[in-house]
Amino acid sequence: MRASSDMNDRTPTRERFGHGCAMSRLALTFASCRYDRMEAIHAGDVVPAGIELNCIRFRSGREIFDRVVGGQEFDVAELSASEFISLMGRGDCPFVALPVFPSRVFRHGYIFINTRRGIRTAKDLEGKRVGLPLYTQTAAIWVRGHLMHEFDVDLATIRWVEGAVEKPVAHGSPHAPALLRGPFKSSATPPPSRWERCSHAGRSTR
Predict the structure, then answer these.
(1) What is the pLDDT of residue 157?
(2) Positive or negative CA dihedral for 134, 135, 136, 142?
């Protein structure tokens, strides 16, 4: 990466290299959400050398992931780590992962509780209903790992409820293969006794 030398011309189509030769820039589309560490790229203050980058900003990572995996719509994009790993494990992954992480947060601070349910420690989550956008979501996998390995929570006792954050519908159209095993009607879902999906007005379909 390099800083642009001319702030008034952020999208040149040709650059000069050694011996005065001009070379066309490689046109690429880049999709990501809004993160502080990506603002300089989106604003054009930092320009990748030799690349004419068309930055496309989204409110939700889920929309990016669905369009990347489902339609391969962008040249470069952030992608769910769990979906990438699942695709690699399945043996038909069309993507190459770059060691670049636009979103960096500690997931410990993303667990919210109902204070009227007698939850005082992480162990108190056992036997409770826990909501999450997707069971296969990268953030959800990290949180389950924290609960299991740092707080000794028995995850098998928890009833997981899937649903979108702002609407009582499914959270996108993920393409991640199943993470659980069992005699289910759909191999992409956990056992019905420990899983449900939010539907109309907070009612579940299972």
Answers:
(1) 95
(2) positive
Grade residue 188 by pLDDT with cuts at 50, 70 and 90. Answer: very low
Name the residue type at position 198. C
Residue with tokens 């989106």: 42
| Model pTM score | 0.67
Q: Judging by DSSP bridges, how do beta strands 51-58 and 76-77 pair with one another?
A: unpaired
CA–CA separation, 3 and 34 (whole Å): 20
With beta carbons less than 8 A apart as the criterion, state whether 200 and 164 touch: no
Helices (H), the chain: 39-43, 61-71, 81-90, 138-151
Q: What is the CA radius of gyration of the chain?
A: 21
Instruction: For tokens 């790993």, name the residue.
Output: 85
In the 8-state DSSP scheme, what is residue 100? -
Rounded CA separation 47/157 (Å): 50
Q: Which two structure tokens, joined as six digits, stand for 42?
A: 């989106």
161 bridge partner residues: 131, 196
Q: How many CB atoms lie within 10 A of CB 48?
A: 15
Helix, strand or coil for residue 69?
A: helix
Res 176: pLDDT: 60
